[in-house]
Every structure is written in C-alpha cells, then in structure tokens.
Amino acid sequence: MAKRSVIAFISFWLIVAAAGCANVERKGGEAGIPAAQPIQAAKAIPVISQSYASPQMAPGKNWKVYLKASDADGDMETIAGTVHQPGVGTYPVSLTRIGEKYRKEFSGYVYLVIPSFSDLDNVGIDVTIQVRDRAGQFSQPVKLPLSIGMLAKEEPPPPGAFQENDLGPIMVELRTVGGREDRDFFRLRR
Question: What is the 3-state secondary structure (H, E, C) of the chain?
C-alpha cells in the first residue's frame, strides 16, 4: 500500500512538471514567444586605478588612504570601507558619499581616525576599500594593512601620484580588547 502511495505521489509531480514545461505564453489570444526586451547597454564598473596608505601610523593621528578612481558612466556614488581588527572582528561597513564633482573621476583620500589610546600600541588592522556606483556595481576591492605603534613613522604617498582632496572619513571607531576605554565604559555604567 505504501509503495502505491509513493508511486502516485511521484506520478502526480511528474505530470505537474510536464504540464509546466508545456505552458506557452499567450499574447492577444495567440500562442507565441515572449516579447523581446530592449537591450540595455552594459553599465561601466568603477575602477580604482591606484591606491596608497602608509603601512604604519602612531595613535592619535588620521590615517589617509589615497585613491585614484574613475567610472566611464560618471555615476560613482560611495566609497565603502571595511575595517578588520584581529581580536575585535570586522566593523560595520562605512559608506562615504562621493561629491558631485568627483562622480566621473577623483584623486584624493579618505581617512580613518586612529584614537590616542596607549592600548592601541602594536595593533594591526586591515582596511578594504571599494567604490560603488548608482547601479549598485562595486569596483575591485583594495586591501590595505596598517600597523599602529607608538614609535611608528608615517610614510607619505609617492610625490605627484595623488591630489590632496579630502573625500571624507571612514566612519569606524577603533576599539581595543580589554583596553582603557572598555574599563572607563564599565566604570561609568556603575
């Protein structure tokens, strides 16, 4: 009896599947093929052609990530920055809006504020940057490492490679694992 139920069940679904495959779209009472959709030109994807950031920085400074980017459509909209910090994890994505005059191409920097916590000495982070256009397309990611240290010396970008246009901040507030700001937070909560 159970075998017949299984066969009936499978037969039912095979018939339903075959009926679905045999369905023909009808337009105006006639069988035919679906109307052709207009062909849209492929949207250009933003391109980050060059990037640079000092590999090391002392706490209490702004870390500049220099970028050169372009988009043939001229519709670049945001710079997405993702910060990953070992021991803390990946912070939420920061979106920096691109100004109207930079929608087709730009050369400049976004910056990350490095707090002056002494607990950030000998901390490393990775920042991944992408440019997004209005069509929702992203450039290839650029990954830049940073080593934070009290004695670190900032290295400037190559001369003449980038313009000094401030494109905006990477809106991430770095934390430390069990550091002073965590203790202050819990002390103030009591």
Answer: CHHHHHHHHHHHHHHHHHHHHCCCCEECCEECCCCCCCCCCCCCCCEEEEEEECCEECCCCEEEEEEEEECCCCCEEEEEEEEEECCCEECCCEEEECCHHHCCEEEEEEEEECCCCHHHCCEEEEEEEEEEECCCCECCCEEEEEEECCCCCCCCCCCCCCCCCEEEECCCCCCCCCCHHHHHHHHHHC
